[in-house]
Design brief:
There is one protein chain. The protein is an alpha+beta fold and 294 residues long. It folds into two domains: 132 residues, N-terminal domain of MutM-like DNA repair proteins (Alpha-Beta Barrel), CATH 3.20.190; 125 residues, Orthogonal Bundle (Helicase, Ruva Protein, domain 3), CATH 1.10.8. Helices cover 23% and strands 19% of the residues. A four-stranded antiparallel sheet has the order 1-6-7-5. The longest helix is centred in the last third of the chain and has 20 residues.
């Protein structure tokens, strides 16, 4: 699933290519991608027609395009969603689901939502131009200038969950997915099962710094592409997968110590780590029977 750097690459592309454009027509070619919009496919299309795109914004892995009437077009890419800006005469993509015909953004073109697996989707957020109510519960991300480092450190250190689970908790910090969690933990030398409450403030701050570094580097390289499903608005893939130190490198030597990278199952996916550089936390011993409270 696209994570913060990949979604930010798409957002920046939309900002370059569709700001100021007027939506002249919307074609919903499959109803599933607009399933979260209570208007239904026809109402969704009708509510967008004639509106002008005022900005391109992001919170974590969500994108939204504020419209000139104060509403917003909210998008989530899911596992395979793509937002492509194409000439109007370009052939339709095989998995094209929604087409927005635009005029007035440099040249007439189309914004196309392409989604093979259809886990992503589009909806209209009423009054959501500044921040859609549907995603107001999602925390800011580490690259957001208003992210509160002190609050994050304090909240992590109060939790008994493993630190990787905490990195993936969108209520604590948004935008960090499986790939960048593993990479940040590798850089910090922390095992993902290390409980947050057993980390020092300095360790949490260092981990946050590594998360910023790894996602910033990925952003500069256009994101991470393991297949053809993640692309920017021009259909181009990113190259950060060539710079990964942990994720997807099972049995390959650790770039730091040479120990083979290990893979374990984690929340219906995988975790990759170096068993030497990132030692597993020791289990806490249960209290002795004679020392238990009455």
């Amino acid at each position: 699933m696209p994570e913060l750097p990949e979604v930010e690459v798409v957002r920046a592309g939309l900002e370059r290519h569709v700001l100021g454009a007027r939506i002249t027509r919307v074609d919903v070619l499959h109803p599933r991608p607009v399933r979260r919009d209570p208007r239904g496919p026809e109402g969704f299309a009708g509510a967008l027609a004639g509106r002008r795109i005022a900005a391109a914004r992001r919170r974590g892995k969500y994108l939204w395009l504020p419209l000139d009437n104060g509403d917003a077009l909210l998008a989530h890419l899911g596992m395979s969603g793509q937002m492509l800006v194409q000439p109007q005469d370009a052939p339709a993509e095989r998995h094209l689901r929604v087409r927005l015909v635009l005029e007035g953004a440099a040249e007439d073109r189309e914004l196309r939502f392409v989604d093979q697996r259809m886990f992503g989707g589009l909806s209209i957020s009423a009054g959501g131009a500044d921040l859609p109510a549907e995603i107001a519960h999602i925390a800011r991300d580490p690259l957001d200038p208003e992210f509160d480092d002190d609050l994050f450190v304090a909240r992590v250190r109060k939790r008994s969950s493993g630190v990787k689970r905490l990195l993936l908790d969108q209520g604590l910090v948004s935008g960090v997915g499986n790939i960048y969690a593993d990479e940040s933990l590798w850089r910090a030398g922390l095992h993902g099962e290390r409980p947050g409450e057993r980390l020092t403030g300095a360790q949490v701050r260092a981990l946050l710094g590594h998360a910023r570094e790894v996602m910033g580097e990925a952003l500069r390289q256009g994101g991470t592409s393991f297949d053809a499903l993640y692309v920017n608005v021009n259909g181009e893939s990113g190259y950060f997968d060539r710079s990964l130190h942990a994720y997807g490198r099972q049995d390959q030597p650790c770039d730091r110590c040479g120990t083979p990278i290990k893979r374990v199952a984690f929340m219906n996916r995988s975790s990759y780590f170096c068993p030497k550089c990132q030692p597993a936390p020791r289990r806490r011993r249960p209290p002795l029977a004679g020392n238990t409270p009455d």
